[in-house]
Amino acid sequence: xxxxxxxxxxxxxxxxxxxxxxxxxxxxxxxxxxxxxxxxxxxxxxxxxxxxxxxxxxxxxxxxxxxxxxxxxxxxxxxxxxxxxxxxxxxxxxxxxxxxxxxxxxxxxxxxxxxxxxxxxxxxxxxxxxxxxxxxxxxxxxxxxxxxxxxxxxxxxxxxxxxxxxxxxxxxxxxxxxxxxxxxxxxxxxxxxxxxxxxxxxxxxxxxxxxxxxxxxxxxxxxxxxxxxxxxxxxxxxxxxxxxxxxxxxxxxxxxxxxxxxxxxxxxxxxxxxxxxxxxxxxxxxxxxxxxxxxxxxxxxxxxxxxxxxxxxxxxxxxxxxxxxxxxxxxxxxxxxxxxxxxxxxxxxxxxxxxxxxxxxxxxxxxxxxxxxxxxxxxxxxxxxxxxxxxxxxxxxxxxxxxxxxxxxxxxx
Amino acid sequence: xxxxxxxxxxxxxxxxxxxxxxxxxxxxxxxxxxxxxxxxxxxxxxxxxxxxxxxxxxxxxxxxxxxxxxxxxxxxxxxxxxxxxxxxxxxxxxxxxxxxxxxxxxxxxxxxxxxxxxxxxxxxxxxxxxxxxxxxxxxxxxxxxxxxxxxxxxxxxxxxxxxxxxxxxxxxxxxxxxxxxxxxxxxxxxxxxxxxxxxxxxxxxxxxxxxxxxxxxxxxxxxxxxxxxxxxxxxxxxxxxxxxxxxxxxxxxxxxx
Lengths: 413, 257
Prior knowledge:
The complex is a heterodimer of chains A (about 425) and B (about 260).
Chain A: H1 3-17, E1 22-37, H2 46-51, E2 55-67, E3 70-81, E4 84-102, E5 105-112, E6 144-152, E7 156-163, E8 182-191, E9 194-203, E10 207-218, E11 222-231, E12 235-239, H3 241-244, E13 254-258, E14 262-272, E15 277-286, H4 292-306, H5 314-324, E16 336-344, E17 350-359, E18 364-374, E19 378-389, E20 400-411
Antiparallel strand pairs in A: 1-2, 1-20, 2-3, 3-4, 4-5, 5-6, 6-7, 7-8, 8-9, 9-10, 10-11, 11-14, 12-13, 14-15, 15-16, 16-17, 17-18, 18-19, 19-20
Helix pairs in contact in A: 4-5
Chain B: H1 2-30, E1 38-48, E2 51-63, E3 67-72, E4 81-85, E5 88-92, E6 100-102, H2 104-107, H3 114-118, E7 126-135, E8 154-162, E9 171-177, E10 183-189, E11 195-206, E12 209-219, E13 225-236
Antiparallel strand pairs in B: 1-2, 1-13, 2-3, 3-4, 4-5, 5-6, 7-8, 8-9, 9-10, 10-11, 11-12, 12-13
């Protein structure tokens, strides 16, 4: 029985079999975005520039339905960008059922957002959802197909989930590296002022991933958190020319490659005052990200390709550099990252914030300033992000140097 | 003889006073919560310069052991949840579906403090003294939500201090009707000693019993703000313990309860 047949049948069965009240919510949003190209970047060629829409906008109609344990969330999306025709998509963000077998024992089937662990800028224990925590103006998350069993006691919770059943090892170069089938386990314990998490994930692609994390509350205003994950096999997208020794490729040379075992970790401290001001300092290490040396090698390859102007066809050079620029799509450009965040909540719906992300290894930095204002049913978001730092840092070399975004959201009912 | 008894009297007197305050707070709590485990449907109106600015709907499940679960139901907040287990707090935002442990200070953030909505008793959280007996305070003349009583009642004036960490307000000056022990007014102070809010309680009969069905909060920090909390229904309901496990916030079966 395929999942496409299962879900409508499940919906009909559940809607007919329960008298629970139906909750339906709808929202519309308009999210324009402006991107400024980085003319100083070696990675900005005509081919790269053609891939960057400087002006775009996402229009969503979002629907949520809940009846008893049944939950559905879908989005109808129009995406417009300068230089291309409008695109229309239907997104099934979530469609799942939370069932109950007995006291403290439940099950879940369907497509569900399942976020685990601790951290703000980076969450190493998020082995199922793997959301990019640093993207701007992000659309609603899309869940993961899963079958899960959950056990709750007074202070503990266990979840065992078979995620993306039937998808096997997937195609890593087509799915961004995360669409493989896996068996995942999450353990949670409330131990006084501590929230303790443990995760275990077994999959053909990454083999074993195991990690622990905790959040500790210190008084009324302070909290600290930390987590570490060991993965038996990590993956990152690298340019095959760096191994082959060639200068130009005829097809996309950016391929995911396994790089052996590694650790991902995060540690942070947060303070929130009575005034509504809050501070966050967080540092993390991502073994799947590039080292400084990886960027130097890719920079050298790009320089070598640029030096071929007049010798090789311009289209081949520009195309190869555009392929290499996919390295900037990684959620962490470098392994070591430090994030500082200052935010304010005026308790009346206005929440401005500022963030500074630094990559100490190469002197790169990302400054983000934004504000959210929430009214009765409307929410306005405005933000700007600027990359920079040392001229040869990864962030300073990014083909996009500035993003300005806004969002207007209306909760209709 | 008296000199011998004096130390004993000094020991006994505060204990007696403390018992009295505990009994008074229990009696006052009964006007807000008719049972230990309840489901409360709450409608919150946020006024700015006397004009209705925002409305919010909450369903609150309360269980013994200072456990409260707040489900946010209004369109702009749908899916958000706050869990309070004694002095420990968690927040679930529907966008991330990840329960986040928050501090007591973070609980105070937001337009309508979660603590004002989820905490409906004093007896578990505060102890203190009966300061004096006074004429009951009258609500401000322009406060239409709180009717002014036709006759002056006498009130017990209690000075309460937090008995546990993590309570929303460090100190409360509470006025109880001397005869019925119904709460009339409270001055709510935050940890710095500053008065943050002034609360007025409005009772009306429910099933023949007087119940607090409206609470009006006047904001001292933002004087042009007024929050009116209407308790649309308060029914005895025992939600399963598992829903008060922080990890269970990502599950959504509570519409059946």
